[in-house]
Amino acid sequence: MNRHSDLGIPITAAAQYRNHTGLSRFSGLANIAFIPKEALCCVTKSYDTKPAPKLLRITLMPELEPQVENDRHRQKMQRRKEVQDERLAAKTLEKGLVIVYTGTGKGKTTAALGMIFRSLGHGKRVAVIQFIKGAWQPGEKAALDRFGEQVFFAALGGGFTWETQDRQKDIEMVEQAWSQGLELIQSSDYHLVLLDEVNVAMSLGYLNPHVVIDGLKSKPDQVHVALTGRGAPAELIEVADLVTEMKLVKHPFREQGIKAQIGIEF
Fold first, then answer.
1. What is the four-CA torsion angle of 32, 36, 38, 39, rounded to 10 degrees?
2. CA 122 to chain centre
């Protein structure tokens, strides 16, 4: 496209069409060379031929020079920053959070472990209690072991319920895990305590949700507690500060028959 300033300014035309059914659609953008600056306007034309499309409107818009566009973007971002700074300045409270990751999708434990490693990066002490998953040695345990006394890790479950096949034993192990988890929470020694798969234990009836909620109410003010697993009870969601539900969209095990793999599932 030619750019001769004495002829006018470059413009872009957006054409909107209506087909014979009466529905509107955009045909896309087309470049038009030049028109005088004073002629910028909205031009309307129509054609009666059917079923050919009817041209409803051509809107002529000046094409911004890169510097003008950049200046506008900078001004917009400055206004946005001012609003964001005001919002942040108004948020002055700090408290230990009850955080729930639930839902049918993958990533609940993974998300909670992300907070565990983030806390470790800040030099904080953390604790992880694994309900249900105790029958295997996941990769996160090997990684957390490298932090020494900065981490407390205990896998107190007997494994998946279809593997253990002993409901009473499962209940006993879950109760033991909860007792130890509550002790860690109330000790104030840990910045973040992760109760992994505790939601599953509650949904299976191995652990009373009200017992867990009462325990959470007794936690020190600055201790964060994360609870993971599908089937989080409504009562827990009600008292939690942050709740994220993972939604299953696709999973390679279900759609492709791909087994659990190192570093992805464990």
1. -40
2. 22
